[in-house]
């Protein structure tokens, strides 16, 4: 039987949250910067912490999923997809019209997941990961340089 998944808005993040959020964004400095301005939603599966995401209002009527991560042993069981749906419902309820997400050009799995869930590519932040990160990032045997930006109209 499928385990029940619950989502909850969190006011105070713990080290457990930060450790997981660092899986999606390796820069603690960047993370600390946007965490303060974001809404945090965590996912628990029968009380067990299993995922987290941060939603950042960026423009009038627009909110960005600035960070999303699922605990390693629970990945590939649909929790990421459920978090994306939860973000959409939350944003709609709060009156947002647009939801955005950005990911690395080398993050093929993530690009698949976001497009599968209705996000469409709307831009490229060239050299984002070169200019904003102290150390080079490698993924899928490639140097990560550019950020792909995606958008969904609610
Ligand atoms: N590589 C390949 N395929 C993937 C990946 C991946 N990294 N992530 C998801 N998928 C596919 C799954 O195979 C699945 O495919 P299917 O529907 O055809 O079976 C589909 O996408 C749905 O996947 P879920 O199980 O819902 O995703 P999951 O619970 O694993 O969560 C997430 C996805 C959040 C990306 C997770 O892999 C993770 O925490 N990764 C590390 C952190 C990260 O990369 N976060 C995103 C960075 S971008 C940002 O934060 C804005
Ligand atoms: N999916 C996943 N990985 C691929 C793919 C693919 N479709 N094509 C190549 N790769 C990877 C290989 O796994 C390999 O990875 P590695 O270096 O880590 O081992 C690397 O890319 C190099 O692959 P090659 O063996 O050199 O590529 P191949 O001889 O298979 O040619 C091509 C690639 C031309 C895309 C071939 O798969 C093909 O003819 N596909 C059908 C037609 C097509 O899609 N053409 C491109 C359309 S875009 C355009 O024409 C401008």
By CATH, the superfamily comes out as: Gcn5-related N-acetyltransferase (GNAT)
CATH class identity: Alpha Beta
Note the main sheet: 7 strands, mixed
Percent of residues in β-strands: 35-45%
Q: Helix segment count?
A: 5
Q: Which structural category do the helix and sheet elements fall into?
A: alpha+beta
Q: Over the alpha carbons, how many angstroms does the gyration radius reach?
A: 15 Å
β-strand number = 9
Number of domains: 1
* CATH topology-level name: Aminopeptidase
Shape: globular
Uncertain spans: none
Bound molecules: acetyl coenzyme *A
Which strands sit side by side, in order, in the main sheet? 1-2-3-4-5-9-6
| Mean pLDDT over the residues | 96
Question: Could you state the oligomeric state of the chains shown?
Answer: single chain
CATH architecture verdict:
3-Layer(aba) Sandwich
Measured distance between first and last alpha carbons: 32 Å
How helix-rich are the residues, as a percent range? Answer: 25-40%
């Amino acid at each position: 039987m499928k385990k029940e998944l619950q989502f909850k808005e969190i006011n105070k993040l713990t080290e457990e949250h930060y450790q997981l959020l660092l899986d999606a964004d390796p820069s603690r400095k960047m993370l600390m910067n946007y965490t303060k301005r974001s809404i945090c939603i965590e996912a628990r599966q029968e009380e067990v912490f299993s995922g987290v995401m941060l939603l950042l209002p960026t423009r009038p009527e627009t909110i960005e999923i600035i960070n999303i991560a699922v605990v390693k042993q629970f990945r590939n069981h649909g929790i990421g997809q459920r978090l994306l749906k939860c973000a959409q419902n939350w944003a709609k309820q709060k009156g947002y019209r647009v939801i955005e997400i950005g990911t690395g050009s080398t993050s093929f799995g993530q690009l698949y997941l976001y497009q599968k869930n209705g996000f469409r590519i709307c831009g490229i932040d060239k050299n984002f990961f070169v200019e904003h990160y102290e150390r080079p990032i490698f993924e899928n045997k490639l140097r990560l340089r550019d950020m792909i930006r995606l958008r969904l109209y609610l």
